[in-house]
Design brief:
With 248 residues, the chain is mainly α. The protein contains eight helices and no strands. The N and C termini lie far apart (56 Å). The C terminus is likely disordered. InterPro entries: Pr6Pr-like.
């Protein structure tokens, strides 16, 4: 005998694929990062428009600001789309470049008598944007809009490749120019005519050690700072009205 046939159940339907929930846009974050991108773009733009000696694109400050502009423009687009933030090995490198730019100007370069003061309003505006506004904007973004404890000591060698590449660029450019050329070297401490290669590389090595210490300090501070971004997000979610289509 065969077993009695059981009542046929309705054939199960193929599982419906639900669309992934759209990530929430972050308009305030987008606006602040767009402003930071604008500041990092305006400084090099004014410098290029007004002209300087040596050419603007050989200045570490100008190149660093351009990298900041690209990173923050990209971050602003991702914030508007609700995409995840940039990886920490990129944001940490941008933060280090901005810190080097601000600290080197305010603590080192202003003490060189060879550094000429700007002679008109536009160079003054460019100097403030390049050396003060952009570094402060990058620091504010790190402190207020990013999650803590994401930077790693293992990232530091990657971050230091940018200053090392700039050193190679500046020395190569100086070697290719004829001796006595005006603004052969972009910064006084890189002047091979004055210090020789041994002296210049010694000063560069000392700066490299200082940059490594600064990167280590930034990484340590990242692991000690409070999660301001999380607090702001939590606070905003508490006061936000229920989404449409919720409980009725």
């Amino acid at each position: 005998m065969t077993a009695p046939r059981t009542a046929l159940l309705p054939r199960p339907r193929a599982a419906e694929v639900l669309p992934a929930p759209a990530a929430a846009r972050r308009p305030w974050t987008t606006a602040l990062r767009a402003l930071a991108c604008g500041a990092a773009t305006a400084g090099p733009a004014i410098t290029l428009a007004t002209g300087s000696t040596p050419p603007p694109l050989i200045h570490f400050t100008v190149l660093a600001n351009l990298l900041v502009a690209v990173a923050f423009g990209w971050s602003a687009v991702r914030s508007w789309r609700g995409a995840p933030p940039l990886p920490s090995y990129l944001t940490g490198g941008v933060l280090l470049l901005a810190a080097i730019t601000g600290l080197m100007h305010h603590l080192v370069l202003v003490n060189y008598t060879e550094t000429l003061a700007p002679s008109s309003a536009w160079p003054v505006a460019a100097t403030v944007l390049l050396h003060t506004v952009t570094p402060l904007a990058v620091a504010a973004d790190w402190l207020l809009l990013t999650a803590p404890r994401t930077l790693r000591l293992a990232h530091i060698p990657l971050w230091l490749t940018a200053p090392a590449a700039y050193l190679a660029l500046a020395l190569t450019r100086g070697a290719l120019l004829a001796p006595g050329s005006p603004a052969r070297y972009p910064y006084p401490f890189l002047d091979v005519d004055t210090y020789g290669y041994a002296g210049t590389l010694t000063q560069a090595l000392a700066l490299g050690l200082l940059f490594t210490a600064l990167a280590t300090l930034i990484t340590a501070a990242d692991h000690l700072r409070p999660n301001v971004a999380g607090w702001i997000r939590h606070r905003r979610n508490r006061i936000s009205p229920p989404a449409a289509g919720g409980l009725k």
